[in-house]
Amino acid sequence: MLHHFSRIHVATLAVLIVAAGCRGTRPSSLAGESAALVLVKEARIPDSEPWYTRFARHSWIDVNAGDGAGWTRIEIISPHSGIGVDPISAEVATDDLRWSDRRVRVRGILRGAEAERVIPDLLARAHDYPDDHYRAVPGPNSNTFIAHLVAGTPGLRTTMHADAVGKDYLAPLAVGVTPSKTGGRFDTPVLGIALALQEGVELHLIGLQFGVGVWPPRISIPFLPEIGPAVPASGR
Fold first, then answer.
1. Domain layout of the chain by residue ranges
2. Are residues 86 and 73 in contact, defined by beta-carbon separation less than 8 angstroms?
């Protein structure tokens, strides 16, 4: 009886942990905010893309300078699209879905005066990004682009999804802070490691990530959902 009771509790706990990992900060929760915003977002790649890319995540940044300035989306949407810095509606910016059925999650937020201060430079650096070539694995790709913008934006912190392939790519090597800016990383095009408060301990192998998070506690394995409590959007 006791053994059976324990198994039920273990199973229930496992379900709760996995379900928690599916939650996160939704764009709709920010609808109606009048202050300037910089939002780092991600969603799983749609089924219209080749089957071997569908496990991966696509990252982008939406910004709003406030006072009715309107929204702008910053991203590289495909290998041949080039860099997009395009106006979008408030409805699109606060939609919880992209490509009809892919859940969008906000991974990083910068608000108010700090957001206003960095937006002009963020847009300028997006236009000046050296988009010479695109390579899905290990990079440089759309996630490499967003990681580059985050790294150069003071105050903007994020924890990029474990399946955001390319987020750790820099050639020939990179030594610096993690996207959350709570620790450091060392990466080569093939192998790398990160150690940080929010990212935890990460091993980077040819664009894939194996990791154990510290705060919140979680496990990341390539091709699988992050296991553990939802990762809150970093920032303020």
1. 2-235
2. yes
